[in-house]
Amino acid sequence: MLPNDTAADGARSIVIFSGLTSAGTHGAAALFTSGADLQSLEERFHREGLTSWPKSYQVVVRCRASDDAQLLSYTYETHDILTR
After folding, report:
1. Residue 62: predicted pLDDT
2. Mean residue pLDDT across the chain
3. Residue 7, Cβ neighbours under 10 Å: how many?
4. Any residues with CB less than 8 A from the CB of 41 and at least 6 apart, and which?
5. What are the CA-CA distances from residue 66 to residues 4, 8, 21, 44, 72 (Å)?
6. Could you tell me the pTM of the whole model?
7. What values do phi and psi take at 28, rounded to 5?
8. DSSP helix/strand/coil, 63
9. What is the torsion angle, in degrees rounded to the nearest 10, for the CA atoms of residue 39, residue 44, residue 45 and residue 51?
10. CA–CA gap between residue 24 and residue 4 (Å, rounded)
11. Residue 37: pLDDT band by 50, 70, 90 thresholds?
12. CA-closest candidate to residue 30, choices 78, 75, 77, 80
C-alpha cells in the first residue's frame, strides 16, 4: 500500500499485488478482500500503537498452491509499516 501523491485530496492509495506465481498474487488479493483478514490486520496495527491505518505498508502472505498452480490456502505471514 502506497500513498498516491497525485491525488488532490490525498485520500487515495495505490495497492500493488505481487507474487512469485499467480497463486501468490491470488492469495494476496484474497487477503485484501476478506473482511475478517482486514480486521485482523487492523488489530495488528492497533497493537503497534497506531490509531488508524498507516499511509504506507507491506504485507507478506504465505500461499500454498496445487501442482497446477491453483491457490489452495493463504495466511498472513508478516507486515512492515513504511510510513505511519
Report:
1. 97
2. 94
3. 11
4. 31, 59, 76, 79
5. 36, 44, 11, 30, 6
6. 0.87
7. -65, -45
8. strand
9. 70
10. 24
11. very high
12. 75
